[in-house]
Design goal:
homodimer; 194 residues; alpha/beta; six-stranded mixed β-sheet; 6 helices; 11 strands; globular
């Protein structure tokens, strides 16, 4: 998605070899106009499938999930990152390791909101090692629902999580796949002198 | 807002005397069509003001914040609940007590995304004692930005946080204000036999 590459080039900040901060438009301050374009792009890629629900994980997946759910006219469900005192006991739970925050937490979804008859489009802003995303896939499968598609805004291809899920046969589409951050190289780009 | 009262009556779950769960359409599973109606209602109430940014707090404010920001055609900024390793040092920070989770945490916003020239509409899904909301007001004022309005979906009036902010002069509008949960009584409702 060219528009996204432009924004990453203009406003992304690379920290070290593996961190790309896009707080200016995606993760902290949110450019809703861009997110609506992203949602339409996911609709172009997955719109031919029957989707009954969009699933994401708090917090930074929620805004993109909201616009994708709107594009598909279905509800959004966001998985929660730890047992909330306000959440019922009747939940699916999967433990997930966060490398960003160096801890393991439980990811939960109320059983009422993910059902066997659901055909689920999973979306998230970032995909790196893929632990959170594998948690969402596991929750969906615990509910015996169908993973109809996985849509990611920015995949850090060099961290391997996306290819692991593709090898397992999931229809995973990332709007951009980065092969390296220094220099910024995208997968499937034609070779050129750098 | 009548539509919201209907949904609370049909799908809300009252737990004890002070907890109203609306996980079916607002807090966990999100009815995006309803959220867009809510966003339009906020636009009707605050649209005559100059708004440059919508501010909310993770996680459950993000979806409503996204649609409100879209209605006003401005960016959404969501405050983060604890110092993230990916967040820069250049942040405004306010300590906030959560009664729901019985702990105190830091609420932060990157200084780049809240500026002196901003005229801010603060939104959140729930208002009870108002600690999180007071944190958002304090962050805005630390940035010397203007609190142009505060929009709340569901206010639990009997917990006092909203009236405390109104007494301080903030233009706070809640789409519904509950005076009690058992029975469900809304503020400003005409008396009737119950």
């Amino acid at each position: 998605m060219e528009l996204l590459k432009q924004r990453i080039a203009q406003e992304g900040e690379v920290k070290g070899d593996s961190v790309l901060r896009v707080d200016r438009f995606l993760n902290h301050q949110i450019d809703v106009k861009l997110l609506k374009e992203i949602a339409l792009e996911f609709y172009r890629r997955f719109g031919q499938k029957e989707i009954t629900k969009v699933l994401t994980i708090e917090s930074s997946g929620i805004a993109i999930g909201a616009f994708v759910a709107d594009a598909f006219s279905v509800p959004l469900v966001f998985a929660k990152k730890h047992q909330s005192t306000n959440l019922g006991d009747d939940v699916y739970t999967v433990p997930v390791t966060s490398f960003t925050h160096s801890r393991t937490y439980d990811v939960t979804v109320d059983k009422n909101y993910l059902r066997q008859e659901d055909s689920v489009l999973i979306v998230d802003d970032f995909l790196a090692r893929g632990c959170a995303l594998e948690g969402l896939v596991a929750l969906t499968e615990k509910a015996h629902a169908h993973v109809a598609g996985i849509g990611i805004v920015i995949e850090k291809g060099f961290q391997g999580g996306g290819d692991r899920l593709r090898r397992r046969g999931y229809p995973l589409e990332s709007l951009v796949v980065l092969e390296s951050l220094r220099p910024l190289v995208y997968r499937d780009e034609p070779c050129k002198a750098r």
